[in-house]
Amino acid sequence: MQSKEQREDEFQSFDLAHRDRLRRYAYYLSGDWHQADDIVQKALTKLFAAWHRVEPGGAPAYARRIVTNVYLSHRRLAWVRRERATDDMPVQRIEAPQAEVELRLTVAGALDQLAARERVTIVLRYWEQLSVEETAAAMGCSPGTVKSQTSRAMGKLRRLLAGTPVPAGA
Fold first, then answer.
1. DSSP SS3 for 142
2. Which of 1, 22, 118, 123 fits a disulfide with 153 by CB distance 3.0 to 4.6 angstroms?
3. Helix-strand-coil percent breakdown of the chain, rounded to 5?
4. How confident is the model over 86-103, as pLDDT tens digits?
């Protein structure tokens, strides 16, 4: 059995090695760096509480699952509201060299219009490059649910991004 200090050292090593990746994952889910920081902090707090039960090899997947659950519960909270731009606001366009940045912002805006679980599915499948089975494990659902959520989300994204020019090499 490990001492308390050994478990804390092990957790700190895990934190240092994985916090940036978890933060980036939380950002892809939420679309906001500050919210991503909050989500990761809550997730790591929960992970630390369960650290004595976590298998070292499965810790990254377990941490990603906790981040997913924290994000989904965070979205359900009534007090979490995000400001949204409207068509009434003046938009300053930056010329051609920023085409890829504009495309990323357009895709991020489309992702923001997906339901929370659909967004989680897309991020896990395409940004994190997990298989259907790994995504199902991370979300705590069946592979069939992952497939249907992915199909529904991709259909919405196709409609939302219809007519969006894709730069060469993308």
1. coil
2. 118
3. 70, 0, 30
4. 555 545 554 555 667 777
